[in-house]
Amino acid sequence: MDLKTFQYFVAVYEYQSFSKAAAHLGITQPTLSRQMQELEKQTGHPLLVRSKKAITLTKEGMIFLKRAQEILQISDQLKHELSPATPLSGDLHLSFVENGQSAPLMQAIYRFQKKYPQVRMHLRKQRETDLMQACVLGLCDLGVIHGHSDDPLLSRSPLTKADTLGIIISKSHPLSDKVALTNINIKGQDLYIPEDLSDAYLQKHKLFATIRGTYLGLSEILPLVQDNTLILSYEHLLEENFYTPYTFKKLIPEMTLPLSLIYKKGSESLLLQTFMTYLKEDL
């Protein structure tokens, strides 16, 4: 079992097809198929579910995939770190929870890639729990989360900017004329809140509205904003204009959430450290 085997397996997972994966890898389909059969013999477990529609993974296959991705990422990082004389290059995996700081975040990425065009960025929005696990497993180089992480395997670096929470409300709602909303204003209203808000935070900032559920992405839940249904969201997240049927209102007293960078302890490569410097300049 070598690095090439891990690369082959990940390619089969990504393309869900032996023929497409083989074309990507530059080898023949029979060769790839034999390699996967040999891998399953070595592990002693079936890793792939073969069907006419697509190739999927077994439970053991999912476990093997996580480790294969981690090993390949560590291999890439090691190659980069052993070549300090070369310009910054390679792949950087950045994950982030939904937040209201997309504009400065993307600006930092733009400035960084303009300076270091040989660095490829892989961006992903994730749930906070999934993001932290990905960092621990080495599948994510850097994460942007709200608050902090108590995981002993992760390092945390606080950011200057914080997210401000507020209410997204229909422009036809009687409360839409108000500059800001109080807890009394939203009492008795149905409210959806971000999935990643902790119980401790909600205990500290008790809301008089009736919490009807949680959501991960704002765009998917916006159609629910009507009549007495409101959404607790982050400022700057809603793209608001004259034609938008919704509007964002700040809360009084103000509700804020600090932002932090997290990464696996011992993974502070030159590439990661340089990118973090750019992020902290904008965030």
Automatic annotation (TrEMBL):
GO-annotated molecular function: DNA binding; DNA-binding transcription factor activity
One GO cellular component term:
protein-DNA complex
Q: Which domain of life is it from?
A: Bacteria
Q: Which residues form the HTH lysR-type domain?
A: 1-58
Q: Which UniProt keywords apply?
A: DNA-binding, Transcription, Transcription regulation
Family annotation (Pfam families): HTH_1 (PF00126), LysR_substrate (PF03466)
**What family does the database annotate?**
Belongs to the LysR transcriptional regulatory family.
**Protein name, per record:** LysR family transcriptional regulator
Recorded source organism is Intestinibaculum porci
